[in-house]
Amino acid sequence: MMVLISYDVAVTSTGGARRLRRIAKECQNYGQRVQYSVFECVVDPGQWARLKHSLETIMDAELDSLRYYYLGKNYRNRVEHVGANPSRDVDDPLII
């Protein structure tokens, strides 16, 4: 399933910049950045449980926010991109 994750971290607070980096890095482990604080993650239920738990452990619930948009398995029909920096199709082969 695809989950769109957006976040807002209070970087002016103590530890805010570190939390921002840690949240971004954790999201990058599971998906691709499509905007500065927005990631598309294609995950199975186990991966999703680990990622969500990790993000909610990193964040400060008093200052930061996370939003999850569940796009499901048929996400291709629900995502439209216009403009610069098109994202890659996560189901395409990855050649390193």
Automatic annotation (TrEMBL):
One of its GO terms (molecular function) is hydrolase activity. Its EC number is 3.1.-.-. InterPro entries: CRISPR_associated_Cas2, Virulence_VapD/CRISPR_Cas2. CDD domains: Cas2_I_II_III (cd09725). Its cofactor is Mg(2+). Mg(2+) binds at residue 8. Gene3D superfamilies: 3.30.70.240. One of its GO terms (biological process) is defense response to virus. Belongs to the CRISPR-associated endoribonuclease Cas2 protein family. CRISPR (clustered regularly interspaced short palindromic repeat), is an adaptive immune system that provides protection against mobile genetic elements (viruses, transposable elements and conjugative plasmids). CRISPR clusters contain sequences complementary to antecedent mobile elements and target invading nucleic acids. CRISPR clusters are transcribed and processed into CRISPR RNA (crRNA). Functions as a ssRNA-specific endoribonuclease. Involved in the integration of spacer DNA into the CRISPR cassette. Homodimer, forms a heterotetramer with a Cas1 homodimer. This is CRISPR-associated endoribonuclease Cas2. It comes from Spirochaeta lutea. The gene is cas2.
